[in-house]
Amino acid sequence: MRLRIAAVYPILWMLIILKQVSGSGVFQLRLKSFRNTQGLLANGNCCGQLRDGRCASSSPCTTFFRICLTHFMADITPNPKCSFATRYTPVLGNNSIDFSKNIHNFTNPMLLPFEFSWPGTFSLIIEAWNDKTRHGPSSGSSHELIMRRAVQGSLSVGVEWVDFNYTSNQTELEYSYRAVCNEHYYGSQCTTICRPRDDQFGHYTCNNNGSMKCLPGWKGHYCQEPVCLPGCHTTQGYCDNPNECKCRLGWKGQYCDECIPHPSCREGTCNKSWECNCIEGWGGLLCNQDLNYCTHHNPCKNAGTCTNTGQGSYTCSCPDGFNGTNCEIEVDNCQHQPCLNHGTCEDTGTGFQCRCAKGYSGKRCGIQAISCDGNPCRNNGKCSNVHGSYLCECQPGFSGANCELEINECLSSPCKNDGRCVDEVNGFRCVCTPGFNGQTCEENVNDCSKNPCLNGGTCTDKVNDFVCRCVPGYVGTLCEVAVNDCEIRPCANGGTCQDRINDFACICALGFTGKDCTTNIDDCAPDPCKYGKCKDLVAGYLCVCDPGYTGHNCDRKEGFTTPRQNKTTTTTSPMAVPNHSNGLKKEKKSLSVVHLGLIICLGAGIPLILIIIAVIVILFRHRQHYFRENMQKEGEQNKINSKCIETDIFTTIPSASASDKITKDELECSNRFNPGQIYDKSAKILKTHKNKIKKKIIKLQ
User: Could you tell me which Pfam families the record lists for this protein (predicted)?
Assistant: First the structure.
């Protein structure tokens, strides 16, 4: 695998180099005038008949031209190969030709295109010929040389013409030439490519030097980035087209500098997107809890003191004699018989009330009244004298003989959905739980009223909450996240994926098509093989030619060659002049320099690189084997040395009665160590024994 990867890098390098040196341009040759007043050939003979020692005017030359453009040669050979281009003209006139006039079937200047980087130097050959057939040059026709102009030169790419005037013994030629780049090619060698475009891949034109110039409203290396509306926030806004300012999620305003609070934020503001900063008096995650309920609603009665406890709650501190949530309950009850003057006490559950006997009034029936003079009617009741007594007409919300009883509307539990009822005069008020509102908390607050779901999502209301049902292609609590359909890599065969809304588009690699680039384009569909069978490949095709045919498209017969050019300048033509309806033949295009260089590099370079890599691998393995072999030898030697140290030769003191025999191991150890070395305390005995060992070694050897 590594060898394959290593082999790819030289190929990529060669392709880059070939891409850099390729170019495209045209060498333009403009003929101005040609004069051959005497009608002579280059060898001095007449083009036609000789009459009275002069060339007859009735048979002038029939002149056509051959142009050869080739690489620079210090010495131009008589018949060089035209490596750049070659052109033939039809018969343009007789002895003298004025090219400022229109000439049938001839375009001036003559165009000699090149598909390589312009080298700056060249060789140019201009030849004038006499066609003896007088019908124009054709293959095999007889023609004779009138004039030959061969020059070397250096020429820079540009629009300026370079003028020349050439004079020989018989002729005079005026001409000029220049080299210009083809469309979209620039630079001194026509190698800089710049193709103006205005699409998704760039928006630019080209300068004179071939560099890109962005169209108004675009910027970036390839002019693919739009210039947004001036003032548009750099991070909170963006644009797809020039002078736009589209806001990112959570921002609004002309310049996308205004934040959007959370969609469910009730009483809050924001400093950045999706914040919910509560204004004074409100709290909670979504600022939907009244923190200053006492000030806004004043719920405590009978001079009770209200204290905010947060989250929309409060506490009433009641004065003596009252209790209840809102200090609405009097502590006194009927057990203490509070009603005077035969008044009847009734326990209401939240206090007591007295039904006074006629002629008495007041909270405890302590006020005696037999007429309206004593103002017996309480709570703004309307008093009327009736037959020695009075009658009270109570205001709404009050009852009793003297309108002393307040009707408690909360006894019927009118508040729904766990709402808390607060009794009021002639009515009640419901404190609703979060998510409900209305007079009796009967309405579920529509949390979808602010359209919190983005990108076409459908909002479903719930109790103090909502749920977004997103359209295909979006997800998230608010449908704010676009699904990237390219994450699953749907594009096959090297295709490039572009995400869209609930969809994707594939930019297929060369040779493939289809929604997901799985379809191989049939390059054989137009049947390019003329005499053979076509085999479809990826981004190409292969022609299997019928017997007798060759070429990329099987369009050439095997063994077919064009007539060769001789070196003679008279009689039979040295050139195979092409036959064309207008007298002009374009040579068949052979392999270009780029193609030829690529074939040579791929054919010879890759095997060479593989051989070098193989040699490196073999050397590396050989080095490992040599290292292991040395380690093995060193280990064996260490074993022998250890054995020699442990033998009696060096660890015992030989005695006179010791055996005179010596083993092979002792012999080897004796050769490895210095026999004169003394290991024991008795030096004399060792010295004597050493001499005996030497003698035994001599015998064994």
Answer: DSL, EGF, EGF_DL_JAG, MNNL
Contacts of 630 by beta carbon, 8 Å cutoff, 6+ apart: none
Q: Which of 176, 191, 206 is the last residue of a domain?
A: 191
Distance between CA 68 and CA 85 in Å, rounded? 6
Residue numbers of the domain that contains 696: 647-701
Length of the chain, please?
701
Q: The dihedral of CA 333, 335, 336, 337: what is its sign?
A: positive
Coil vs helix vs strand at 221: coil
Query: For residue range 396-431, what is the model confidence (pLDDT) as tens digits?
Result: 888 877 887 788 888 888 899 888 888 888 888 888
What pLDDT is attached to residue 253?
A: 93
187, 176, 234, 148: which is closest to 22 by C-alpha?
187
Residue 43 C-alpha from the chain's centroid: 70
Q: What CATH number did the domain enclosing 92 receive?
A: 2.60.40.3510
Q: Which two tokens stand for residue 361?
A: 């009034």
Which residues, 6 or more positions from 300, have their beta carbon under 8 angstroms from its beta carbon?
294, 306, 314, 316, 317, 318, 326, 327
* Contacts of residue 125, Cβ cutoff 8 Å, sequence gap at least 6: 66, 67, 68, 69, 70, 76, 80, 82, 148, 149, 150
Question: Do residue 107 and residue 219 come from a single domain?
Answer: no
CA angle 441, 445, 447 (to 5 degrees): 165
Does 218 share its domain with 176? Answer: no
| Domain identity same for 66 and 173 | yes
Estimate to the nearest angstrom the gap between the alpha carbon of 437 and the chain centroid.
Answer: 52
CA quadruple 482, 485, 486, 487: dihedral positive or negative?
Answer: positive
Q: What is the CATH number of the domain that holds 238?
A: 2.10.25.10
Same domain, 226 and 210: yes
Cβ atoms 459, 451 nearer than 8 A: yes
Separation of alpha carbons 72 and 178, rounded Å:
16
Q: How far apart are CA 178 and CA 163, in angstroms?
A: 9
Res 587: pLDDT: 36
Calpha distance 621→24 (Å, rounded): 50
The answer on 218 and 171 residing in a single domain is no
Contact 218, 227 (CB under 8 A): yes
The SS3 of residue 261 is: coil
Euclidean distance between CA atoms 265 and 296, whole angstroms: 20
- Helix (H) or strand (E) holding 646, with range, is helix 606-646
Own/partner long-range contacts of 53-61 (Cβ < 8 Å, ≥24 apart) = 60/94, 60/95, 61/36, 61/94, 61/95, 61/130, 61/146
Same-domain pairing of 174 and 201: no
Q: Quick one: pLDDT at residue 445?
A: 87
- CA dist., res. 3 & res. 12, Å (int): 15
- Cβ atoms of 563 and 577 within 8 Å: the answer is no
User: What are the backbone angles phi and psi of residue 370, rounded to the nearest 5°?
Assistant: -115, 0
Phi, psi of 509 (to 5 degrees): -70, 165
Q: Do residues 556 and 549 touch, judged by C-beta distance below 8 A? A: yes
* Tokens, residue 83: 């490596």
C-beta of residue 165 within 8 angstroms of C-beta of residue 149: no
Determine phi and psi for 226, rounding to 5 degrees.
-75, 150
The count of domains in the chain is 4
Give the pLDDT confidence of 343-369 residue by residue, as tens digits. Answer: 888 776 666 778 887 777 777 887 777
- Chain position carrying tokens 């022609």: 543
Q: What is the DSSP letter of 587?
A: P
Residue 575 lies in a domain: no
131 plus 222 within the same structural domain = no
Residue 50 makes CB contacts below 8 A (sequence gap 6+) with 56
Peptide bond into 109 cis (omega under 30): yes
